[in-house]
Amino acid sequence: MDAISLIVRSIFVDNMIFAYFLGMCSFLAVSKNVKTALGLGIAVTFVLVLTLPVNYLLENYVLKAGALQWLGEEYADVDLSVFSLLIFIAIIASITQLVEMVIERFSPALYNSLGIFLPLIAVNCAILGGSLFMQQRDFANVGMATSYAFGSGIGWMLAIVGMAAIREKLEYSNVPKPLKGLGITFIVTALMAIGFMSFSGIDI
Amino acid sequence: MALSSKTKAVLLGPLNKNNPVIVQVLGICSALAVTSKLEPSIVMAIAVTIVVAFANVIISLLRKSIPNRIRIIVQLVVAAALVTIVSEVLAAFAYDVNKQLSVFVGLIVTNCILMGRLEAFALGNGPWPSFLDGIGNGLGYGAILIVVGFFRELLGSGTLLGYPVIPQGLYDAGYENNGLMMLAPMAILLVACIIWVHRSKNKELQEETN
After folding, report:
1. Distance from CA of residue A53 to its chain's centroid?
2. Where are the domains of chain B?
3. CB nearest to B196's CB, from A18, A183, A191
4. A21 touches chain B (CB under 8 A)
């Protein structure tokens, strides 16, 4: 039950894009049409669900203060959290690389639709942000961390697909010249974010 | 020191015509999330400038020896090492600000400005121009951050850097702080306004399609 409410929370209340603005760069760049937006959204969810549990285990069994206790008593006060950023980003970069190679080898069709996004994703702030928030929130177990990753990914996908749908319609509207393109996209994002804020009072 | 016109373009271009945030659309995430007050905006601007400049120098020095296939991982490791140093320094000397910035200092690693400049400039240029390019882009990013932070703090809480600037008389006359400005979406709207003004001044930057 906890996991479900965590998923719902991270989709709507703590939405990666509208509450924390993570992954905005690709959100703005790849939201021109719904199909590619959906592809990128799936790729982000996929990578989040793969990397977050790995980083969670590393955080709790290697990096955190006292996490190395399972090696023996003398390691009880080793604190490696200084390296967490380096380790997280290395894990994310190598997992995306690995996933890209595996998909390319086993499913060329999937590779054609997802593959181009994977290298982009290594530097998507939403992925690293997920790991850093995981570190901050101290989830109880791997399952919770994975649900959080799944919910955040779905939330991100929802946002980018919604944005792409709106931008497809915007094509036919008469926007003031200086606001064309980037400007109007920002305004639409802001309005969507205000809309999403109405979820923030909900206590699940 | 007299600057040649080329170095000047590298250093000052990002402040206006080639601004990383509003023209190249890089580094939006952090620009929006940390700007609810002026102080964290300034700290963030300085942190990003330092990291971009030095990462540019390091990658530029290494550019001939990095194999092409793994360059992204190398760039990320260099960036992560620099960001770790910056975040430890912040935690030691500016603990309160560090708390406010929370995960966003760590997120400088994946700040697109950093990766964008490393890919687009440092891999093809010498260390000194790369350093200037890093400083320039950091400042361009900082300028947007500071403008947004200034307006959000002024209108949202009536203070600047924590000091009250709206006279008490105005409050007595019925003026209220606009709480909406403290909310995240307002940062996006402010950036949109900056884009609007900037593009009406620079017509060549206007886009044809929506």
Report:
1. 13
2. 20-150
3. A183
4. yes
